[in-house]
Amino acid sequence: MTAELTETTAAAATKARPLLEVSDVGVVLGNGWRASRVLDEVSLTVWPGEIVGLVGETGSGKTTLARTVVGLARPRGGRVLFDGTEISRLRGAARRRERRSGHIQLIFQDPLRSLDPDLTVGDIVGEGLKIRGLPAAEVDARVVDALAAVGLVPALRHRQPGQISGGQRQRVSIARALAAKPRLLLCDEPVSALDASNRNYILRLLAGLRDSLGLSIVIISHDLSSLAGIADRVVVLYRGRIVEDGPVEQVFTAPRHPYTALLMASAPRVEAPGGDPDGELSVHQLRRTTADPAPPASPGACVFAARCPFAVDACAVQPPLAPVSGAVVARPAASSLAASSPAADGPADGHWTVACHRQSAWQALARARTATARR
Ligand SMILES: Nc1ncnc2c1ncn2[C@@H]1O[C@H](COP(=O)(O)OP(=O)(O)OP(=O)(O)O)[C@@H](O)[C@H]1O
After folding, report:
1. N or C: which end of the chain has fewer CB within 10 A?
2. Ligand 1: which residues within 6 Å by Cβ?
3. What is the pLDDT of residue 350?
4. Do 349 and 327 form a contact (C-beta atoms < 8 A)?
């Protein structure tokens, strides 16, 4: 990896303000009667050098949030700031300039579909640089450099996507993003199509890029266990709303929103360092049954109320994200990688919020429920 690539991105890590600030963003997709509110009052902060996991079931709005950050979806209300500049209002030439800067790179879920099968790896990685008018020799050097950064040999640049493995294709996607010298990577399900060994390789690679380049990284994932080892912070989306946002160790050890707990209970196995497997709640303790009282059904009700077994009258009103009560928030230390992150000493410490009226009450109620399926 060249010193130049390292310097450009490491500079971002030293600044004492968030790299990305999404504030109260709403997004409506579709038109007329098919229009639907896909994001509602979403706020997300990513600090220099921080790895943030964005989780939530399918359709919760994760991809839409990433697309909003890069300007592919237009927010209706709210704003997106990148390094202090409001990018959500940029139009025309200013928007094109921002895009061409390459500072924010979106890495798509399915590399086979997102990489042009007719281009060589070299063309794919260098495409954006050519569009920006860089001389051929510089494009070539940066392509080789970016491939090396993801552990691929230079000779691979003569192959086409169909001639390399799935893991290599995902590395090519990351190399393409790195060639633009980004400061923020948004990775949409970067490992969901990969087998276990490639998954671990890509996750370690992303963590290594954060450490060596000071990159900020948002990893969108269904798979909570893949985030446990590398993310500093986890943000949980449910039907377009953030329901919990906090240090990965605390959230995965003692989730404060019943939906986060349900996600964790549904996952194959999420190992939070210091976690207590015996204390974990089961899916059956967290799912509504016909025996539970009917949840409030007003239009402004908590977004999770209809599925929540602990909903009470107060849940007829959507709770705002509020600091977790009584929590002692330690510095993120989900892994040695996370603990050594530039963000771990930064202002991201101590931030743990949850949107639940019953944040202090539902755990005891859940434990009192039977841990096995009702017959
Ligand atoms: N162009 C569109 N028009 C209308 N609705 C859309 C459009 N694109 C997405 N949606 C809807 O927006 C919601 C959020 O979609 P999004 O892809 O952001 O969710 P996601 O959490 O990334 O899901 P997944 O994990 O399956 O990728 C979904 O209900 C989806 O059907």
Report:
1. C
2. 29-30, 36, 38, 56, 58-64
3. 62
4. no
